[in-house]
Every structure is written in structure tokens, then in C-alpha cells.
Structure to design on (148 residues):
């Protein structure tokens, strides 16, 4: 799930949340393959508010002894931090953080504690192939290729 403006595609313009999701998902290849078996864009509305710790826009990470690498460094280190946060803050249901690919983008990782906030089905689930104008624009914005 991505924060900021909703992950909506309107008039073939890719808004920041959509671009951020493309960047995060395809960051290993730097090439978007819209014909992948599971390559869909999904949008959902939470059934209830969730409590997340924002580690991207606050000085919390620094005061806890960390640094910006928690969002952009080695994933194994970020997972260790996430496990510690999960353990020490039992009422927090996830974390909000800066995207490692698009620092202006916001990403959220929800934990099992937030399971009851998820709807039974997404509000929208569409194959990327059905939104190629937006896919191409989002990929161009972050310097990724697209398999046509």
C-alpha cells in the first residue's frame, strides 16, 4: 500500500503512488513486464484506521539509534529493525517509510495485527497491460524500461 495521493490513474497520468508502486515492485530488474502472470495493480480501502509508525518523516529513527539506511540500505537490516519495532510496540500495526526507489513516495508495510483492516476484495484490480499509457509514463519518470 502506498501513501500520498491515491494510486489512481486518471487521463493516463501516473500519480505518485502508482509510480512508487511500479518502482518498488520492479526495482530488481528496472524493466516493467506488464504481461507477467501476477502483474496487476490493486487499490483498496482499509476497513478501519490502522496505527503505523512513520519512520520516514520523523526523527524517530535517529533517536532510536538508526539512520536513513533503514529505508534504502540492505533489506536484511531493515527487516531486523521491523522485527524489533513489532516486538517493542505491540499496538503498532505497521510502518510507513520512504520508498527506496522514489524518496518522495511513501510505502507502508502492514503486519498481521492489521489483518482485520483489510477488505475482503480490492476496490480495483486490473492487469498492467490494461493501463499501458500510465505504465509507460510511470516507468519513464523513474528511468525504467517497459516490455511492450
Amino acid at each position: 500500500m502506498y501513501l500520498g495521493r491515491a494510486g489512481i490513474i486518471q487521463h493516463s497520468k501516473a500519480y505518485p503512488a502508482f509510480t512508487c508502486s511500479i518502482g518498488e515492485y520492479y526495482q530488481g530488474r528496472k524493466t516493467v513486464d506488464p504481461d507477467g502472470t501476477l502483474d496487476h495493480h490493486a487499490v483498496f480501502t482499509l476497513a478501519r484506521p490502522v496505527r503505523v509508525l512513520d519512520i520516514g518523516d520523523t526523527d524517530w529513527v535517529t533517536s532510536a539509534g538508526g539512520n536513513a539506511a533503514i529505508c534504502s540500505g540492505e533489506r536484511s537490516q531493515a527487516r531486523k529493525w521491523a522485527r524489533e519495532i513489532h516486538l517493542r510496540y505491540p499496538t503498532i500495526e505497521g510502518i510507513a517509510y520512504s520508498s527506496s526507489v522514489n524518496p518522495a513516495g511513501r510505502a507502508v508495510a502492514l503486519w498481521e495485527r492489521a489483518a482485520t483492516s483489510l477488505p475482503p476484495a480490492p476496490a480495483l484490480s486490473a492487469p498492467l497491460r490494461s493501463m499501458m499509457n500510465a505504465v509507460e509514463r510511470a516507468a519513464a519518470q523513474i528511468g525504467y524500461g517497459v516490455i511492450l
Remarks:
- The helical segments are 16-25, 60-63, 69-72, 75-88, 132-142.
- Residues 47-118 form one domain.
- Residues 1-14 have pLDDT under 50 and may be disordered.
- Residues 75-88 form the longest helix (14 residues).
